[in-house]
Structures are given as structure tokens and as C-alpha cells.
Amino acid sequence: MDLxxxxxxxxxxxxxxxxxxxxxxxxxxxxxxxxxxxxxxxFGALCGTNTVTTYVESTTGVVEGGxxxxxxxxxxxxxxxxxxxxxxxxxxxxxxxxxxxxxxxVLMIKPITKIDLSDVTEAVPCFMMILTMPFTGSISDGxxxxxxxxxxxxxxxxxxxxxxxxxxxxxAFFVLxxxxxxxx
Length: 184
Fold this sequence. Notes:
The chain has helices at 2-17, 30-47, 58-63, 69-84, 86-89, 98-109, 120-136, 139-156, 165-182. By secondary structure, the protein is mostly helical. Helix 1 crosses helix 2, helix 1 (2-17) packs across helix 8 (139-156) and helix 7 (120-136) runs antiparallel to helix 8 (139-156). The longest helix has 18 residues, at 30-47. It is globular and about 60 Å long. The model has no long low-confidence stretch (mean pLDDT 83).
């Protein structure tokens, strides 16, 4: 699931930053970003922390021009300094951060204009993802439901040849995941 959270974040952030090749749809440097995330996740697990991963909030920094490691390093140093002031920061009510989260949401929704809404087999899975992510609070759950609905809609409309083998395999694993959760 961490992989799907990371992929969702990287795709959204890269699209907002204009780092996606318009002809191929490929994201420049995706391998390096995934490797950095994997190293962070592994190192975080070894240290006993919560999962260290990319976060959607990165979109705000990228949109403001922070596209190098210097931005991430600066933020890391500021978080290090913030450790000493954490009691003071805990006084700030969660409602005070709402405006920043609204801005992140606005930046994330921008690529929706590229969805072909005239094609139901493309629009429905996108709608399911957009709807599921905020209600479940999970990018990965939204992506799983999007993949499942994509395959289901394509098969039900007779366009099953447009679905790759990888999507069928992922769908089978996701269905098994949900079945196993029913019995736990």
C-alpha cells in the first residue's frame, strides 16, 4: 500500500510541476524517486518510526519552484529545529492548518481537466478515485478502487482488450486482499 501512496503522490506532484512527458506520459526521474522512497521507508522501519514516505503536501513546495533536493533538505532542517519547539507547536489548533490543506487540494485537483469525461470507461474510474481518497483518507485505497473499477468498467463495456495483463493481475490481487479482510 505504501507503493500506491507513493505512486499517487509522485504522479500528482509531477503533473502539478509539469514534469510529465506530454507525448509518452512518463515521469522523468521516477526510478530515482521510487528508490529514494524505498530507502527512506526501509531506514524508517529500521529506526522504528512510522512509514517514511512521500506526502501529497509536497505539491505545494513543487508548485512554488522547489524541485531540487535543496528544498527537501531545507524542510528537513526546519523540522529538526521544530523538534525543540514541539510543545509550542502543539498549542496551534488543527483548524489553523486547514487553509494549507485546502491549497494542497486545489493544486491536486488541477490535472482533472485532462480526464476524457466523454469516455465513461475513463471517467468512472477517475471519479471513483477522486471520491474515495478523501472519504477513506487513503491515496492507496482510492487507487485500488480506481484500478478495480477501471478493469470492471472496461470488461462490462466490451473493451476488455484495452486492459493490460498487469491490470488484470493487480485486480486479482486487490480482490483477494479485500476477501481476506472479510475473514479477519
